[in-house]
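Schema walkthrough. Field components (list of strings):
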Amino acid sequence: MNEFHNLLIWKYLDGECTSAESQQVKSLRQNDTAFEKTFKEAETIHFTLKAMQAETPTMRFATAVMEKTEDRYRRPRIVTELFSARWRRIVLCAMVMVLIIPLVSTLFIQPHGNVQSDPLSQYVHELPHVLAQLAPWARISGMIALGLLAMLALDQGLRRWFFR
Amino acid sequence: MEDDILLVRRVLQGDRSAFRQLVESYQQYVFTIAFNVLKNREEAEEVAQDVFLKVYKMLGSYRQESKFSSWLYAVAYRSAIDASRRKKLLQQSLEKDGVELPIPDLISKNSLENLQDQELNTWVQSAVQTLKPQDATIVTLFYLNEQPVSEIAKITGLSVTNIKTKLHRLREQLREDLAPQYHKLFGGVVTK
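Field assembly_structure (string):
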């Protein structure tokens, strides 16, 4: 028995075989005794696992849960998202723009004429100058975008923490 | 799924009897997931109750994009793993990293010769319980809860390929472990 045949058997039992593969299984079962033996073993395991019973908790399980919900919690609140998926995309795009425009302008415009070999250090070096040259509206919009991004991150973080 | 969503809506409107229906529908599955991870009935029951309390509290955040059962099982699995970590049970089970399945205590090797269908079921169920928490959960979700591989991947946080590989390895291991007993029992012909 090779690994391919083993995979084929489980695929067949899971009902995922194509018609050609199903034919191959039938043919192998008739002509290959080792395959037939493995198939029977796998089939038995498969149907035994399918017949597996769920574990049963104590009789008072549901009642205990209901009592606890009565004690501890009131009616569940409907949680609305702070930002819709559409707004999240808009804010992320704005942030990308805010970060990319100075990077591109620094790398390609070369305002001070000095060429630096390392683009990252050049970007870090030039960033304050570029930010200083930005129009006030651009700085304000950048700050708003940063604020929104921070709120978005906080929203996502708290959501994951609470609803994990 | 439709029924579950209707029940969820009723719970959100304040109908507590709808929540009881959800609990009664899923209590065995949630308990089984917790039991497979924790290997202890009392702890599993406690965790399963906490799962339903947690679900009740955060039902308003349930987006109906995924099946309610998948969402519930994901909460159950994570809660059980958290509880297991707290008790350092997970660390112990990770030390037993080998894939070899021990023969369950319920049936000795000698008595396996006398396996009948019912005993075979017991053997397999016990073998599943001796698996590592994650492996037992995968097998349980696939066979007992009849979850597709893609849903199991979401519940456990593993990739679909990883789930398929693990499932194949586990089933092959079960088959190989049980093969000698089949042939003693059925004389080479398994009639199922």
